[in-house]
Amino acid sequence: MAANSTVDSTTPRPALRLPLEWIGVAPFFLFALLFLIMPTMKIVIGAFQTPDGSFTLDNLAGLFTPSILAAYWISIKISLASALLGCAIGFAMATSVVLGGLPRWIRGPLLTFSGVASNFAGVPLAFAFLATLGPMGLVTVFLRTEIGIDLRALGFNLLSFWGLTLTYLFFQIPLMVLIITPAIDGLKREWKEAASILGASNAQYWRMVAFPILLPSLLGTMALLFANAFGAVATAIALTGSSLNIVPILLFAQIRGDVLGNPHLGYALAFGMIMVTGVANAIYIWLRARSERWLK
Predict the structure, then answer these.
(1) Where in or outside the cell (predicted)?
(2) Strand partners for 55
């Protein structure tokens, strides 16, 4: 026993090794810390501070002024309109490609384009729409000179509610296609065969089987599209400037000190946007988890 304990005491202990498998994801955590978590904490703390650093609720109370409430309401309406239209059009496109009997080669280019277009925003997107549908845009001039249709006379203005909504659809529809396509792929062929055996028509199958299964995914994706549009800043500023009073433009002006001259009220504006988009993303995550239980 003594000999054994002597051997055990002299046995070298294994050296402490760093978990090398975490090195690959270290840049992600560093990026999230520097550009997501720390700025968010700065905004949250600043929303409850005065310029001298003391605690206050006046910044949040300032959000209930008529002009700021109107900006939030317009932003919510634009986000909701683009989310609803994006969901409807994107779902129709994804369904046509996956289940509509279209040639298989269409799916690859559509998903590739959707991956690119869903990230195409900001100044390039605003310029593209101004060059196409602006007052002197290519399509606007062609319709007026060659066909005799004056979009401005018909009431269309790109620098307006529906103009910004139309611009948002350029990245909302592709994002919907990317997210809903795997959910449509998850519909089992056996479900449709069983419905047909029981005498259900195609419309009854969609109304009683497929659509209820896809509903959590549809609602969750709509919540994500709402958050995506509500937080879009660069496109709105580049396209409309200060002509449309929405929260991102008001926040941009507030940060520059052009309008209200209170940076901490700007923090409160950003904090309100974080709350709205946070609720929308939480709804998306919850509904996505429910839909995945059905599609496994």
Answers:
(1) Cell membrane
(2) 49
Q: Look at the pTM and tell me if it is higher than 0.85.
A: no
- Per residue in 35-56, pLDDT (tens digit) is 889 988 988 998 898 888 888 8
Which domains, from first to last, does the chain contain? Answer: 66-295 (1.10.3720.10)
Both structure tokens of 177: 């296609």
Which residues make Cβ contacts (< 8 Å) with residue 288, sequence separation at least 6?
216, 217, 220
Tokens of 275: 């709350």
Of the candidates 182, 198, 207, the residue with the CA atom closest to the CA atom of residue 288: 182
61 by DSSP, 3-state: which? helix
Stated as kind and residue range, the H or E segment containing 86 is: helix 66-99
Exposed e or buried b per residue across 226-243, where buried means at least 16 C-beta atoms within 10 angstroms of its C-beta: bbbbbbbbebbbbbbeee
Average pLDDT, the chain: 85
